[in-house]
Amino acid sequence: MKVLATRRYPGPAFEELKDVEVGSPSDLHAPRPDVEALLVANEPVPLELLPGLRIVSNFGVGYDRLDVAELGRRGIAVTNTPGVLSAATADLTFALILAVRRRVVEGDRAVRAGAWTGSWADGFLAEELTGATLGIVGLGRIGQAVARRAAGFELRVLYTQRTRVDSELAEHRELDELLAESDVVTIHAPLTAETRGMIDARCLARLRVGASLVNTSRGEIVDEPALVAELVSGRLRAGLDVFAHEPHVPEELLSLPNVVLTPHLGSGTRQTREAMTRLAVDNLLAFERGDPPATPVLLP
Ligand code: DGY
Question: Which is catalytic among the residues 54, 218, 237, 278?
Fold first, then answer.
């Protein structure tokens, strides 16, 4: 089975693909009648250029840039890599929560700029995490991993999602209540037609003064210009790993002290990225053998 990969994916599992061409995302813009399988990282797939395509293996849990409905109509299988990245993404979420709440990056910049006067007793006062309320938007695998970590920080944990679940990790709230009650809101929903722009200006206005918004899911879930306006006004804080038009980051955010910015690092540990490659490759190898892939999004 001829595989086109949009990069060399990290880890030894990648070498198990026999007939693989290592390209780049721009290779998806040329006609490739010979390609039967794609290994992509949520890059859009121009189906008209790939008449022989049988499977798309997505490196990542989110596949919002793939036209799954059209892939299904054409009888093309789609797989993704859920589960293996939940811990790394939850860890990064906590790194952002701590960084924002405890002004870690602001402090680092001050030290490097020589602006630390030597007094520790009254400078850089931040907000305690212990005892604060954390609101989780989306209690799926990653949301639950965040909730488990939150227990260690003695946080009160709320969650909201369309389907209410019985959970010992978090108490359910409607979105509006969760926003109003939380000191920190963290987003762990997939990007869908329903969640695109879900955290809009009205939602942001419901957050408490000084509350923090953390996003390690997809930038498009938040109305980015509305968030930028709130951050420029200084009313909110944010830890953002994802943006609406990556790798573009709104210019206004770059100089703000109340925002921590990271370049879509959620799953970015060596161990996790290698595990993602393992799963993405295993899905291709299973499909080639005629076995069901372990983590299908859709099978023909
Ligand atoms: C995913 O898996 O969708 C993530 O965005 C990768 O970090």
Answer: 218
Q: Is the pTM of the predicted complex or chain greater than 0.90?
A: yes
Q: Looking at the structure, do residues 34 and 129 belong to the same domain, yes or no?
A: no
Residues in CB range of 278: below 8 A, 6 or more apart? 11, 13, 84
Atom of ligand 1 nearest to the CA of 59: 2
Which protein residue has the closest C-alpha to ligand 1 atom 4?
Answer: 60
Residue 233 CA, ligand 1 centroid: distance in Å: 30
**How many domains would you assign to the chain?**
2
Tally DSSP H helices, then E strands, for the chain.
8, 13
Containing 98, the helix (H) or strand (E) segment is: helix 86-101
Looking at residue 82, its pLDDT comes to: 98
Say yes or no to pLDDT of 42 above 90.
Answer: yes
Residue nearest to atom 1 of ligand 1 (CA): 60
Does the annotation mark 248 as catalytic? no
Q: Do 52 and 79 fall within a single domain? A: yes
Based on the residue annotation, tell me whether 188 is a catalytic residue of this protein.
no
Residue 56 is part of a domain; what is its CATH number?
A: 3.40.50.720
Would you give the DSSP letter of residue 10? Answer: S
**Is the alpha carbon torsion for 48, 50, 51, 56 positive or negative?**
negative
Looking at the structure, do residues 30 and 177 belong to the same domain, yes or no? no
Same domain, 61 and 186: no
Domain membership flag for residue 295? no
Residue 118 is predicted with a pLDDT of 84
Centre of ligand 1 from the C-alpha of residue 107, in Å: 29
Residue 294 within any structural domain of the chain: no
Q: Is the dihedral of CA 122, 123, 129, 133 positive or negative?
A: positive
Q: Amino acid identity of 76?
A: I
164, 246, 252, 270: the active-site residue:
246
Instruction: State yes or no: pLDDT of 119 exceeds 90.
Output: no
- The binding-site residues of ligand 1, defined as CB within 6 angstroms of any ligand atom, are 60-62, 85, 266-267
Could you tell me if residue 56 is inside a domain? yes
High-pLDDT (> 90) share of the chain, %: 97
Domain that holds residue 187: 85-261
